[in-house]
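User: I'm writing a short report section on ligand binding and want a predicted complex to refer to. Could you take this sequence and phosphoric acid mono(formamide)ester and write out the structure as tokens? A short remark afterwards would be nice.
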Amino acid sequence: MRHLLSIADLDRSGIEEILDLAESFREVTRRDIPKVPALRGKVVVSLFYEDSTRTRISFETAAKRLSCDVMAFSVASSSIAKGESLRDTVRTIEAMGIDAVVVRHQAAGTPRRIAGWIDAHVVNAGDGCHQHPTQALLDAFTLRSHLGPRLDGAHVAIVGDILHSRVARSDALAFAALGARVTLVAPPTLLPSTTAGWPVDVRHDLDDLLPDLDAIVMLRIQRERQAQSRFPSLREYTDRFGLTVERARRLRPDALIMHPGPMNRGVEIAAEVADGPRSVILEQVANGVSVRMAVLYRLLAGGATGFGGTGFGGTGGADAPGGETTGRG
Ligand code: CP
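Assistant: Sure. The structure tokens for the complex follow:
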């Protein structure tokens, strides 16, 4: 057990072990003093080459609640501006004595490259449109919190910009591994050229599906990643694929509404729906801390099981859920 680079590194029992452990850590996060000495003396570095609000703060909070020392790396004020390479940067940081690196990078495969250069554990916090394994774990944790410990037979739709989404690639693998039925919904222009090998059904129409769903995951339209327009206008996208108030009414009363964030309110999801009673979007954020505590503990405390393989996961091409392309999710 060395790294968490892809959700494909984990089989069902590996995922369930982490989610079970996260239940224990959720109890810790609810205490008056939400901190345990489990990883005292361990040093975790957050190395974010790409913007983040949730993931970065969540990992840093998780590490602190486990009593780790946390080093936050700022790309803007680092020697990268003077031309220092990624390899020299991470080897320099490691020389100061660290135990784990949490890395986000716009280029798919960067966490795996880093894992080949240093001895410290590496956790992928999002690389291109390849993988975001801890997002998948926290999303699965959130589903289990509402649907029960086993997701077998649950129907989950992932809707929107699948093409650029590392969250879609990670969620689909995690939910399917746990027994859920996963349907991707998007216009053909926002899907990979092939979804062969993905454990999913694919649909281009959202409306018929709505009454059948246990949960719906809305994805951000990644306009900054679209060199060409992939739909006629935002209004037309929302008309066909947005979770509007009208569409939300067609969901079952107990269906969960999810979004990994950040949201484009009024585009892929209406503000009233995002803030409505069936939305678990902020619960996803809160669960992220417990799940990341579980991941850090599994990697750094030793003696854990379930992290099969050395990390990169996907063996397919660029469009496979574990494949490498640039983008984000
Ligand atoms: N869900 C997610 O990765 O959000 P951030 O980009 O804010 O970390």
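A remark for your report: Strands lie at 43-48, 69-74, 100-105, 121-127, 155-159, 181-185, 201-203, 215-218, 256-258. The first strand starts at residue 43 and ends at 48.
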